[in-house]
Recover the amino acids of this structure.
């Protein structure tokens, strides 16, 4: 097996230029799932990936959903695979909208190779989230197949086109395809990051999320602020008061029962994270901030990975165009998200938000809370067989131990795979903190692409035993 692994690594290095060309071709497809105008582009991206996998010997088919198609592909692995575990690889081909276009240094769907501090990088929407990372394991498959004629383990691939809009049709698909998908023993996902460009990581903690909309209503119509100001209720001001009350002076969330179920971080894990030497000032300085936020007295990595939060994501109400328009808005609203940690119940958090807003609003205002989504946090065992094997593969590639990290974001599919299919997930990603995920000039370091492919070559060998 070691000989085959070395041959596959050599093969991966040999076609590096072709890999970059294939990634560029995928990045040129503007598969923006949120925008109906790009529905055919989403289908084109799925079809492109289907053709790539079929060309590698996978049985690959597109499955229709109420939204964008899901690609399901399978490869039998070696003859008489026997003890080799069946592996499920998950990723998504859809991308976030590219707007605002002004800050982009090049058109978002015309990938450019530019120089950066770590060498060459590709700049395009979807470069790291998730097309570039999906290509790390597809190109690892290619290297194994070209070097050895097959894969060292049976593999199923699941690629969806609605991850960026909430995966509305994925759970039904998983349930419908359960008999086919549940033969896998573990799901491999590359949609996360490294600690830094020299230090690989396995993500074992993901925050969940409750996403809600808050609306505050007053009069039946917008009012002239001179004629009615001083006697009429002001929904925008009331909204601001309610939102300001979501945190106390120490940065803790004030919803009733919000921290119920939250467990303190184990001392051993806290010490391991402290040893990473995270520079909070540099982290914030990179985005133009000089002051820190969140809970006072809690170390930064714990605030990012293992503490729950409440954030205001959007505000509206009244007039916000150029020049004056003196009105008291009839309605004001906000989008609010709560990042959750292991032990918190999304339904209870949503109910607590609705209760608090109803109780805290002053008489005369109509307050409405709409819960748009709710996903639980994930806390994966750091000592599982899969994590140990991943750390071994990554250490062999990078020459240093892979660290176990958390992620402040959410990947709801991990919970769905566990609940519906009974599958654990292995989160091995190759993104960096400065990749501008979801923002203008999103990029993926070509060094991360290359070592991501080589890491997946090694990981396949490790998982196959």
């Amino acid at each position: 097996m070691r000989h085959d692994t070395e041959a596959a690594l050599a093969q991966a290095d040999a076609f590096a230029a072709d890999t970059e060309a294939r990634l560029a071709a995928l990045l040129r497809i503007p598969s923006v799932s949120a925008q109906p105008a790009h529905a055919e582009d989403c289908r084109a991206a799925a079809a492109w990936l289907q053709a790539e996998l079929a060309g590698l010997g996978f049985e690959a088919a597109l499955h229709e959903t109420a939204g964008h198609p899901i690609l399901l592909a399978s490869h039998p692995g070696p003859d008489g695979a026997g003890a080799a575990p069946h592996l499920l690889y998950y990723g998504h081909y859809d991308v976030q909208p590219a707007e605002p276009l002004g800050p982009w240094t090049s058109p978002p769907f015309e990938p450019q190779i530019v120089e950066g501090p770590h060498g060459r990088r590709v700049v395009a929407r979807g470069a790291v989230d998730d097309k570039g990372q999906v290509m790390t394991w597809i190109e690892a498959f290619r290297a194994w197949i070209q070097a050895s004629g097959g894969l060292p383990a049976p593999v199923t691939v699941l690629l969806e086109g609605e991850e960026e809009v909430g995966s509305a049709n994925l759970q039904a698909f998983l349930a419908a395809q359960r008999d086919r998908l549940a033969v896998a023993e573990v799901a491999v996902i590359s949609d996360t990051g490294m600690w830094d460009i020299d230090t690989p990581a396995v993500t074992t903690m993901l925050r969940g999320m409750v996403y809600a909309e808050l609306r505050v209503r007053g009069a039946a119509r917008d009012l002239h602020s001179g004629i009615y100001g001083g006697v009429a209720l002001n929904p925008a001001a009331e909204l601001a008061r309610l939102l300001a009350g979501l945190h106390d002076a120490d940065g803790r969330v004030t919803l009733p029962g919000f921290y119920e179920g939250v467990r303190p971080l184990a001392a051993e894990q806290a010490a391991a994270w402290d040893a990473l030497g995270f520079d909070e000032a540099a982290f914030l300085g990179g985005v133009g901030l000089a002051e820190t936020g969140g809970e006072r007295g809690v170390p930064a990595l714990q605030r990012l990975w293992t503490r729950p939060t409440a954030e205001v994501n959007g505000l509206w109400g009244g007039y916000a165009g150029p020049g004056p328009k003196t009105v008291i808005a009839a309605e004001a609203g906000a989008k609010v998200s709560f990042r959750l940690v292991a032990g918190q119940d999304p339904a209870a958090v949503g109910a607590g938000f609705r209760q608090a807003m109803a109780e805290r609003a002053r008489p005369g205002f109509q307050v409405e809370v709409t819960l748009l989504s709710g996903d639980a946090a994930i806390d994966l065992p750091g000592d599982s067989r899969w994590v140990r094997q991943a750390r071994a593969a990554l250490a062999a590639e990078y020459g240093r131990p892979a660290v176990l990290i958390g992620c402040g974001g959410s990947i709801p599919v991990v919970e769905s795979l566990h609940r519906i299919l009974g599958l654990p997930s292995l989160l091995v990603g190759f993104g960096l903190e400065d990749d501008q995920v979801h923002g203008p000039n999103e990029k993926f370091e070509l060094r991360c692409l290359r070592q991501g492919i080589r890491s997946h070559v090694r990981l396949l060998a490790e998982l196959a035993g």
Remarks:
- DSSP finds 15 helices and 18 strands in the chain.
- The two ends are 9 Å apart (CA to CA).
